[in-house]
Amino acid sequence: MAEPTTPADTTGQVLELNIGNPAHGGHFVARHEGRVVFVRHALPGERVLARVTDGGTDAGFWRADTVQVLEPSEHRVAHPWQPADALLAAGAGGVPVGGAEFGHIALAEQRRLKAAVFAEQLQRLARIDRDVEVEPAGEEHDGGLGWRTRTAFAVDASGRLAMHAHRSEELIPVQQMPLAVDAINALALWDVDLAGVARVEVAAPANGSVPLVLLIPETGTSPGRLAEVAAAVAAGADRPVSVAVWEPEQQQLTRLRGRSWVLESCGKHEFRVTGDGFWQIHRQAPQILTGAVLDGVRPQPGERVADLYAGAGLFTAPLAAAVGGSGRVLSVEGAAGTSRDARKNLHAVPQVEIVQGRVDRVLRSQYPPRRGRSGRQPAGRLDAVVLDPPRAGAGRTVVRQLDELRPRVVGYVACDPASFARDLGYFLSLGWELDTLRVFDLYPHTHHMESFASLRPPAPVGR
Ligand SMILES: C[S@@+](CC[C@H](N)C(=O)[O-])C[C@H]1O[C@@H](n2cnc3c(N)ncnc32)[C@H](O)[C@@H]1O
């Protein structure tokens, strides 16, 4: 009888691979002795050497990172950011930082690959075939750089600004972040001694207003030490900067310099966004997404609209302007600080009702289902719903609630094609139809994308 074999760890092994299609998550599919290997920093059609980063003889699939290209694709270009260049890092015996995993690909090809991934998710999870085009967000001449108005950094053991390698605890010191807006790089945080700080989050509004540096301290760092770091941040900046301390476990935000929020804007609307509160990352995302929402939903004067997962009110404000004083906008946001921002941002707009809470719970309490002769019907009416859930999507419960509410249109903003396609599948199974679908390249040089879809309910029975 054969001895049972112990699974062996194959991590570190270098494989020669032929690269196939892109997969969701920024990988490309290859096969080694029949097993699927998800390879990063490669391109379809390439032949590469890739080092296994996650493997085991009993694992269903492996992960690997390209270390050398034997036959390059015509779409391969020089990476715009050295620390994220996998080939450079491998040549120096290291690993690249995460966050620009498509930087080795020409921008137009990045968009073609994202379109293919989006279409595949629609096919696999919603069972529909749809041609997808990914629209560029900026001018091609900016090279897909300088768009991040928000960036998170780690701090290494010697107090230097750093970033994580992909799926790793390894920290790599960084200087300059070419995907970030100039105002973030102008802070030169890499010159600041950040000892005592675990993480740094920077927000620099595209409208040029004062940036905010959030210091997330290591456990036990004294207030005096944090004040020293704040002073060093301010001294190194070439313009006014706010500094605050954010302690996620206590949910406590402490202002050290300037203010504890930033002033964002979109069109004629201004928004204060506190601490780590949500705001769209790409400098043009607020305008692009607001335009897509208004075009796709077409809110009318007097209508009742819900803006779900509303953040600081980016879509609530233009929706309220469109429905006017005779309409109503219910704006639902889960995070307490962000919901407070929404309340402040929209306090002068009487047709807006800000509610803090989980979307499913708020819908249940505002529109309790009641049993009528024709079955379950919600009390009250909604003409249109906009939802912009986090990466996990809205889920089956919320989709069912929206189906019962039967607005004339649902506008779904999504940052994850897989959870969107899953939710779309739920809508389609309830008889809804996909109308508009737009996908935007709001995260150049990464595998991420943003989308907007408008959905139409089934026609009422008897019509
Ligand atoms: C992708 S952001 C969108 C925010 C806003 N639409 C914007 O574009 O600025 C998602 C928001 O949903 C909130 N959120 C997450 N889960 C939630 C839930 N179950 N109920 C309500 N809000 C939630 C988050 O705090 C976050 O502000």
Write out key terms for the chains shown:
463 residues, alpha/beta, OB fold (Dihydrolipoamide Acetyltransferase, E2P), Rossmann fold, 25 strands, binds S-adenosylmethionine
Question: How would you characterize the overall build of this protein?
Answer:
There is one protein chain. The chain has 463 residues and is of the alpha/beta class. The chain has three domains: 14-76, Nucleic acid-binding proteins (OB fold (Dihydrolipoamide Acetyltransferase, E2P)); 150-263, Beta Barrel (OB fold (Dihydrolipoamide Acetyltransferase, E2P)); 282-456, Vaccinia Virus protein VP39 (Rossmann fold, 3-Layer(aba) Sandwich). It contains ten helices and 25 strands. The strands form five sheets. The chain has an eight-stranded mixed sheet with strand order 7-24-25-23-22-17-18-19, with helices on both faces. A seven-stranded mixed sheet has the order 10-9-8-11-12-13-14, with helices on one face. A six-stranded mixed sheet has the order 1-5-6-4-3-2. Helix 9 links the parallel strand 22 (384-387) and strand 23 (409-414). Bound molecules: S-adenosylmethionine. The site of S-adenosylmethionine (SAM) has 17 residues, from strand 18. InterPro entries: NA-bd_OB-fold, SAM-dependent_MTases_sf, TRAM_dom, U5_MeTrfase_fam. S-adenosyl-L-methionine binds at residues 280, 309, 333, 388. Belongs to the class I-like SAM-binding methyltransferase superfamily. RNA M5U methyltransferase family. This is TRAM domain-containing protein.
